[in-house]
Each structure stands twice: as structure tokens, then as C-alpha cells.
What we know:
It is a single chain. The protein is an all-alpha fold. It has one domain. It is about 75% helix and about 0% strand.
Amino acid sequence: MKIITIITGIGNISKAFNIFAGWVIVAAMALMIVNIIARIFGHPIEGVYEWVGFMIALASSFSLAYCGFQNGHVSIDLLENKFSRKTLAVIETISNLLVLLFLLLILYQFLPYAYSYWESGQVSPTTLTPIYPIISGVALGILVFTLVIIVKLLQPSRKEAGK
């Protein structure tokens, strides 16, 4: 029963992150529209390019987990008819293990990277925005995606169950 609670919790977290990502995209679009209108009147907003880049980076990383939780990532269905369900379950497990390894390597690099930006006080060139919160936010999105992959590895394979 605990695994179902964990799966539900990770699913809820990933859904909340996805909703946040959607609002960040809306905010980025609104910022671009306001900037276009402001440009017409000769008063463009400084740093829009930086802010939109930051926002898209956050939205991208925050939406990964929900997509993974919903099995929305690209998969090759052409092979499903050629292998047994058991073989497909093994392939899915190996694939998830490789993704998990890759995500752990990303986190291993991102966290010291964010810390180095925090320690040095480095900021973006135009708006002088501290960069470490953005890097940390992207790492947080990747961490939740990592948890989704771990949950997928712990629950029985859909291929083996015939779903």
C-alpha cells in the first residue's frame, strides 16, 4: 500500500510542476506581447530575451516529470509486435535504468554548478538577475523527473501486465 501512496504523491508533485510550467509559459508569452507593444511606443523592456530564456528553461524542466509520469515521451511501438511482453518489459526496465543513470549524472553536475554560481555571485548580463536560482530550479525539475523514473522502476511493467 505504501508504494501506491508514493506513486500518487510523485504523480501529484509532477502534475503541480506541470501546471506551474504552463503558467510560466503563459507569463513568458505575456512578457513578449507586452514587450512588442512597448516597442511600438518606443519603450522596449530591457532583458526580455534573458527572462524568456530563464522562463523556458524552468518550464521545460518542470514539465518533464509529468510527461514521464503519463508515458508521454516518444517510444518505438513498431517493436511491440516483434517481441514478447516479457522481452518488452526487460527492454523498458533497461531503458528506464539508462534514463535514471543519465538523470543522476545531470543532477551530479547541476548542483555543484548552481552552487558555484551562488558562491561567485554571478548574474545575467542585462538584468543582473542571479543565475543560481534558475539553475537550481532546473535541477529541481530534473530531480522530480528522476523520482518519476524511480517509481516506474519500482512498479510492475505495463508491457508485462499487457496494458
